[in-house]
Each structure stands twice: as C-alpha cells, then as structure tokens.
Amino acid sequence: MRVTILGAAKSGLAAAELARRNGETVFVSDAKPLDKAADAVAFLEARDIPAEFGAHTDLATKADLIVVSPGVPPTNPVRLEAARLGIEVIGELEYASRLIINPIVAITGTNGKTTTTVLTAHILNEAGKPAVVAGNIGTPLSSLVGTVDPTTIIVAECSSYQLDTTSTFRPHVSMLLNITPDHLSYHGSFQQYVDAKWKIAEYQQSNDVVVLNADDAHVANAPSVLRGMVRFFSLLKEVDGAFVRGGEIILRDQQHNEEILMSLRRLGLPGAHNVANSMASALAARAFEVRNENIRDSLASFNGVEHRLENVRVYKNVRYVNDSKATNINAAWFALSSYDHPIVWIAGGRGDNNDYTTLDDLISENVKAIVCMGEDADAIFNHWCTTKRCVKVLTMEEAVHAAADLARAEDVVLFSPACKSFDMFANFEERGRVFKASVNAL
Q1: In Å, how far are 5, 48, 118, 134, 418 from 20, measured between CA atoms?
Q2: Which pLDDT score, from 0 to 100, does residue 136 have?
Q3: What stretch of H or E contains 213?
Q4: What 3-state class would DSSP assign to 152?
Q5: Nearest Cα to 205, choosing from 173, 234, 180?
Q6: Is 194 exposed, middle or buried (0-12, 13-18, 19+ CB in 10 A)?
C-alpha cells in the first residue's frame, strides 16, 4: 500500500517509521522549509524514506492512504484534494491503533488530560499492572506498536485533533473529563469540537468502559449510541461510579453497592479538579480489577506532572507553583481555585480571544496582586488594574522578581498564564522551564 504521511513532526515521523516496518511504500510531505527540518530530514534519510519539504506537491496524493499529523486542519489543500479523489485520510492515532494489540485507556477533555493520564498509569504500575503513557503526552502511539509487551496497558492522552481523524479507534477504557470551547479555529465550531471529543467512545463495544464527568453538561448526557458500559464521576451528586460524600470518595458499582475509597485529605494533588481527575483515574483502574487499597495508596503518593500545578520551591516562606500548561481561561480557573492562601498571579501570553470576566469572582476572592506579561499583558492589566494591584513586565525573569516583591509569607506565587506560549516561547514546556529557572535563581 502507498502511504503518504502529512507532516514530519514527532507523530508523523513515528507513523512513517511504523508504515515502513509494516512493509508499506511510504512518502512524507511537509510544508515546513527544508532549512528548518534538519532533524526530520536526517531521520527519514537514515530509514531511506523519501520526502518533500517546503511545499506539498502532487506526489502527496499519489497514495492509497494519507496519515495526517495532529493539527493539520481539514482545510489543508492535500486533505481537500484527497477527499476529492476518494483517498482515505486518517490520523496517526487511528493508524497506530489498527496495528496495536495492547489494551488502551484513552483520555480526553479540554483540561486535565495530562495529569489524569500520568495518574492512571501510576495507579496501574503501582498495582503491578505494567502501563506506559503515550499519545498527545509525548510518545506517539505508533512508536509503541510491536515494541512493548502485548500485555502492557497503554494510557493514551488524546487531543481533539487526534480524535477528529479516527474512524475505528476502540480503546478498552475511554474517558471524557470535560468540554469547554478550545481549538475552534481548527474545528470550525464548538459543536464540531464536541463531536470530535465524543469520537473517543464511538467505536467501543459492550465489554468496554466509558468514564464520564456527570458535572459537565456536554459530557453528562451520554448519547444513546454509546455501547460501552458508562461509569460516572461527580463532585456534586451521587452517581454510579465515583462521587464525594462527607469529605470522602465513594465508589458505587452497578448493583449500587458502596465502598469508601479514601478521605479527600489523603489525596496527593490539590484542588477540586484534581479530586475529579483522581476519581476518573480510579474508575479506569477498577476496569482492570485494581484493588481499592492499591488505588488509595497510589492516589496518596502521586505528586503531579511537570508544568501542571508543579511545586517548584518555597522561598522566604512563599510557595512558587508552575502551571505553564494552563494555556486557556478554564485551566487557569482550576488553578486559581486550588489554594487557600493569598495568590500573586503571573498571567499572560498569546490570548485566544480570552474572556477574563469569567475569572472575576475568583480573582476578587483569592488573588492579592497580578503580574501581567506577554501579548495579553495590556488586556489583563486593563481588566483588573482598578480592583487589584497590577504590574506589567517584559520578561519571565522580571515577572518572577515582581511577584517575589509583592508576595509575603504564606502567599502562593502562581504562574498559570491562561494564554498560549507562542508569543515568547516555543511551547508551554519551554515557558515552564524558564519560569522554574527564574524561581530557582532567586
């Protein structure tokens, strides 16, 4: 079969290598200029995979199958031409899933995906059930095909981009944490974004499990077409699955038998959203028959993931927290609601038509001062400067020093930008590392 890989970033290269190992005739096409693709060129040349860079030519559609990298939009000219020619177009996640035999836990949601993915794998590994993380979290699913033991559980973070290009993807456990508007420039509308998220469970069968957030209106009303066994989690009401009652997490099975899992005070991660993430992970682990005591111990010992409410340092009795992964308003909302002490908030970056009014109540109650940076610095400053002490800065180092000057003992300096990183940094990981370096230099 002739397979074209559209996009030569990490997932595209992994798909190209998998297709070559699978005996296909592979061609890679990427519009990125050749002088900015040295690593990809070296990777492909070492495997004798032909490629083109700088533009997509007609060679890209001389294929039986086109595998697109995440983020290549439906409006891409190669995708449009493929549709006209009747060539099947799928994503790397879909392609790899057709060739892998491992059980998969697939996790999506606008916020909380990474934490819940790593947490779920942590519970499984601690219980003696080998698991690896993959997908949108860093390791493409294609890289694991045939390289890990067939019994290893793959816990895959799945973005809306990846799910949008699936057509048979069937995880054993799917998880939908929440849905709020995001990536609308790619999907075209909020409903199309919602539809893409729901594809995570579309092809499951009756012996599969669907874990859903009962508190999210876009998630709670499970479509009647779902064939998997639905398990809910909730912070607000009692449901079949996992819920909170009297400061404890309760598990309820399909026969309405209840067990106390653990006290909320024992959870290793702060914030109500992490209670929800913990319940979702617990339900996924129960689908693999992990015992409650193993789940309890794992939830208590988990310390989180880099760039997500990551404790960096306590300096002069002030806690510095890196939440660089908060690239939208909703993620920042969760972070700002996670602490009982006054917050000096560092925010800003490339806004995505952010509506900051949704944070007004939290800012009023929890935040003592705001340090504004990046392209949205003026918007943030102008929105709150009449009610809170606000400072504008140009660099991350200036932001950290300004926050240190504003903070007092027992305060929290929270870097939760509510914006994308691309105005000043390559990605949120680089932004978080620069923040941590600036904090550790104090």
Answers
A1: 11, 9, 30, 21, 41
A2: 87
A3: strand 209-213
A4: coil
A5: 173
A6: middle
For the chain, give every domain's residue range.
2-90, 100-301, 310-440
**Residue 412, phi then psi, degrees to nearest 5:** -120, 125
Mind giving me the DSSP string for 23-39? T-EEEEEE-S-GGG-HH
End-to-end CA distance of the chain: 57
Q: Give per-residue pLDDT as tens, 351-367.
A: 978 999 999 999 999 99
Rounded Cα–Cα distance for residues 203 and 62 (Å)? 29
**CATH code for residues 100-301:** 3.40.1190.10
Tokens 């959870």 — which residue?
267
Nearest to 108 by CA among 45, 27, 241, 202: 202
Nearest-CA neighbor of 202 among 164, 242, 155, 152? Answer: 164
- The band of 176, judged by pLDDT with boundaries at 50, 70 and 90, is very high
Q: Are strands 318-322 and 153-157 parallel, antiparallel or unpaired?
A: unpaired
CA-to-CA dists, residue 21 to 16, 26, 49, 346, 348, angstroms: 9, 10, 11, 47, 44
CATH architecture for residues 2-90: 3-Layer(aba) Sandwich (3.40)
**Rounded-to-integer distance, Cα 127 and Cα 166, Å:** 31
* pTM given for the model: 0.78
- 35: Cβ contacts below 8 Å, ≥ 6 apart: none
The letter for the amino acid at 259 is E
Q: Which two tokens stand for residue 163?
A: 């799910």
Tokens of 357: 């009014």
Q: What is the CATH number of domain 310-440?
A: 3.90.190.20
d(CA 387, CA 364): 8
Q: What dihedral do alpha carbons 278, 131, 151, 204 form, nearest 10°?
A: 40
DSSP letters, 235-285, are SSS--SEEEEETTEEEEE-TT--EEEEEEGGG-SS-SHHHHHHHHHHHHHH
